[in-house]
Each structure stands twice: as structure tokens, then as C-alpha cells.
Amino acid sequence: MAASFRSLALRVLSDSTRNIHHVSRCPIKHLCCHAGLTGCRGYSDSTEGRSTHFGFQSVPEEEKAGKVYKVFESVAKKYDVMNDVMSLGIHRLWKDTLLHIMNPQPGLKLLDTAGGTGDISFRFLEYTRSMYDRQQRMRVKSHQTPSWQDIADHYVSDEAGPPQSHAVVCDINKEMLKVGKQRAEKAGITTGLSWVVGDAEELPFDDDQFDIYTIAFGIRNVTHIEQALQEALRVLKPGGRFMCLEFSKVTNPLLARLYDAYSFQMIPVLGEVIAGDWKSYQYLVESIRKFPDQYFNLTGGIVAVHSGFKL
């Protein structure tokens, strides 16, 4: 389920280049160089003349980011509602499962890349708070007749307060972040959470800053997946964990036929009725089919978890 970051990155890079036309092998050198913990950074090769997928369309690489931005700018206000409608609410279980696999401890720092409206970060903060409360209850149970030293240690730890977990939601789309901030305010989440406008291919953070890097339902929208993986590796601390939650290839043939019929015939219609945007949801459906195969399946392969550690 979890692998070294280097082997995971090379596998995803290998698979992703099947769907990108005219990609040279130079980025693999960059990726291997960074996986060896050297200081290389950036995607220096010119993209002129290259094409990539935008759904089922082939577009110049330099145009994809702008097109993806317009998609999410268009759907931002209805994004969370559409997630519930399209998945029948199951996306909540997928995200909960990601957190249970992650099992973050109190005091860790998360980078939620392509974090949009903050679903993963909200869950991360709630999970670490619950984990701290659970640890405190277990501590009390284990000291039914505490010594004077135990009592003194307890007062010292209470004065210091619980370890402060922190989540940074990083997304290139300002409209998505705006909606996320509004959600946080309504939920009363005022501490341990930051919102940053940033590109997954060129993150605005120093090296070795985060304990966990997540990207949920976002990496397939990145133009250069290998560059996003380089950046993930760069900003993770040694021993830090990379986790990707993404739509993928359905493994059951019957479920695959039903899923395709629902995806192509119903989701764009729902997008038009609820969000007033057929084309954006047509793109989202198509983009799922262009993403590499999976490692750890959820719901028969509709969604998969990809995980690795920085060594």
C-alpha cells in the first residue's frame, strides 16, 4: 500500500507519459535527481510544440493550466454540492478512508495541494484533535493511582497545551480557496489552518517543510505530473509521506460499464442542472479516463490511493 517515494514517482511518471504526446526523457532525469535528495528544481524544458490531454481533447501544454483554471473557477460555488450529488455522498467516505490510512498524529504539518475548498484539511485537523483527546483518555486510564511525579508531569503538559497540528490548503484557483475560507468560517475553524494560492508544479514553500503531502482529486489536472511529484518530494521532510487520492480505473467489468454509463450520460447533465455548466463536468469525466492505473482500490477501483515516503 505504501512504497518509497522514488519508486512511486517513477511508476506514476512512466504511466502518465503514455497520455502525453512528444514528451522527452529529460524530466525523468530531473525526477531521479530530486529523488536522490539533490537540489534540482523546476521544469526547464521548453513546452513549445508539445501537446497534452484536456479530457479527451489534445491541447498545447501551455494552454492546459488556463483551461483547467476556468473549469474550477466556473464550478467553485457549486463544487461541494456537485461532489455530493455525483458520488451520492460516497466521496466523504473516500476522504475519511484516506485519513484513516494516513493516521496523522497530533503536531504534524500537512500540505493539502490542490486542496480547493478544504475537505482534506478539515478532516486532518479534526482527526488529529480526536487523536489527541483519545491519547489523553488512555493516559488517564493508565494512571488510575498516579504518583506525585505523574501529577506534576500532567500539570506541565496541560500548561504547554496540545501539540499544534497545522494544515496548509494550497490551490492555484482563488475562487476555490474563497469558497473554502467561507466554509471554515461557518464551521468555526479559526486555528491551525492557512490558505495559500500556489501551483502544484512550483510550490511557494521552502524545502523540507511538511510531514504529509496530500493531493486529492487534483493530480490528473496537472499538466506535468512529474514536476508536481518533484515539488512534493522537495517540500516533504525526510520520512514525510506523500498521499494521492484520485479517480482511477474500475476493475470489475460490470461495474465499469455501469460507471461509464453514469459518468458520461448523467454527470454532465447534473452539472448543467445544478451548476449550469455541462462542459466543465464533461471535462472532469474525461480527465478521469486519462489518469494512470492504481495501487490501492476503493469502491472497486472508482477511486484509488497512491502512497509513498520520502527516504
Folded structure, characterized:
This protein has 311 residues and is α/β, with parallel strands linked by helices. The chain is built from twelve helices and ten strands. It has helices at residues 5-16, 26-35, 61-75, 79-87, 90-102, 119-142, 148-160, 174-187, 225-235, 253-265, 267-275, 278-289; strands at residues 2-4, 51-54, 57-60, 109-113, 166-171, 193-197, 210-216, 236-247, 296-298, 303-309. Strands 1, 4, 5, 6, 7, 8, 9 and 10 form an eight-stranded mixed β-sheet that branches. Strands 2-3 form a two-stranded antiparallel ribbon. Helix 8 links the parallel strand 5 (166-171) and strand 6. Helix 3 packs across helix 12 (278-289) and helix 11 runs antiparallel to helix 12. It is globular and about 70 Å long. The protein starts with a strand and ends with a strand. Mean pLDDT is 77; it is low at 12-45.
By DSSP, the count of extended strands is 10
End-to-end separation in angstroms reads 16 Å
Radius of gyration: 21 Å
Structural class: alpha/beta
Shape: globular
Estimated share of beta-strand residues: 15-25%
Secondary structure tally, helices: 12
